[in-house]
Design a protein that fits this description.
single chain; 306 residues; alpha+beta; Copper Amine Oxidase, Chain A, domain 1; 4 strands; cell cycle; kinetochore; chromosome; Spc25
């Protein structure tokens, strides 16, 4: 009898099912054996794990103890090194102190030997100091006289200076009709060049005077010439010479002394260098009573102020 395709397929499926069931039973048997073996292995490994945990705790304790011992050892090394350094430092300090003591002994001996010499020098210095004090007292008197003369120059000659953008030179007591009328000009020193900033009243030939000033560097002469120019202007306006103004040649040295005593002009003078002008000494300063009698004396211009 011939089998149909459906019957053949059913037969193959039945065979495959039997084979699969057989294989499943075999797998189940192997799984059971493997599970049994695993349970036995776990039973045998558990004491080892417990022993390993115990040994791990002991190992941690040993590590902590080792760290403490290492820290203690390091501290001991540091303390030992510090003690050795202190010992070396003390030994060096003792040696240095011994040398220092010997040096101080020699110094004391030398100081004792020089004591008499210093006393002699000190006595000489005291004598010199007394002479200097006497000289200073004389200088104070001369400075007082110079200040009195300066104040007199301002009141009689009508000359003063002011600082600012430049040095302002102011003259009065020139105009016969108005003794308080001021004639002034402002000069600035920039490096080695003098510049006229302002002039009241204006002068026609002022450029030539500035050029001569920069060429000769004689500031005092320039101030005298400017005053003479102002006097000429005043004479032209009034057709007569002002009575209160001394003759130009007789006031040269007084004006120079006043310029030198003014701090603002002194700073300009030091920048420009020495102007090589003679000024009266303190001993030769005029008073109002002696001015008319001594103004023409050539002995008035004798030496420079210090």
């Amino acid at each position: 009898m011939v089998m149909t395709s459906e019957q053949s397929t059913s037969l193959k499926m039945a065979q495959l099912r039997l084979a699969c069931e057989k294989e499943i039973r075999a797998c189940c048997e192997r799984s059971g054996l493997l599970a049994t073996s695993i349970r036995e292995s776990i039973k045998s490994i558990k004491p080892l794990v417990e022993n390993a945990e115990t040994n791990r705790g002991k190992l941690d304790m040993l590590k902590d103890y080792l760290k403490e011992m290492e820290s203690t050892f390091r501290e001991a090394l540091k303390a030992n090194a510090s003690k050795e350094a202190k010992h070396a430092s003390m030994s060096e300090a003792i040696s240095t102190m011994a040398v220092r003591i010997e040096y101080l002994k020699e110094t004391v001996d030398n100081q004792r030997a020089k004591k008499d010499e210093y006393e002699a020098v000190l006595s000489q210095q005291l004598l010199a100091l007394q002479k200097i004090e006497e000289k200073n007292e004389g200088d104070v008197i001369e400075i007082k006289k110079l200040k009195e003369a300066t104040d007199w120059y301002r009141s009689v000659l009508g000359f003063q200076t002011e600082g600012g953008e430049g040095v302002k030179f102011i003259f009065n007591k020139i105009d016969r009709n108005d003794q308080d009328k001021e004639y002034w000009f402002v000069v600035r020193l920039d490096g080695d060049i003098y510049t006229l900033l302002h002039c009241n009243p204006e002068l026609h030939d002022i450029d030539d005077l500035i050029e001569e000033l920069n060429r000769t560097n004689r500031l005092f002469k320039f101030v005298r010439v400017m005053r003479e120019k102002f006097q000429e202007i005043s004479c032209k306006d009034t057709h007569s010479i002002a009575v209160s103004s001394p003759p130009p040649k007789s006031t040269d040295s007084q004006m120079e002394a006043l310029i030198q005593t003014n701090p603002s002009v002194q700073s300009k003078k030091h920048q420009a260098g020495s102007l090589h002008q003679d000024v009266p000494s303190p001993a030769a300063i005029l008073t109002p009573q002696s001015f008319s009698a001594r103004r023409r004396s050539p002995r008035f211009l004798v030496e420079k102020l210090p």
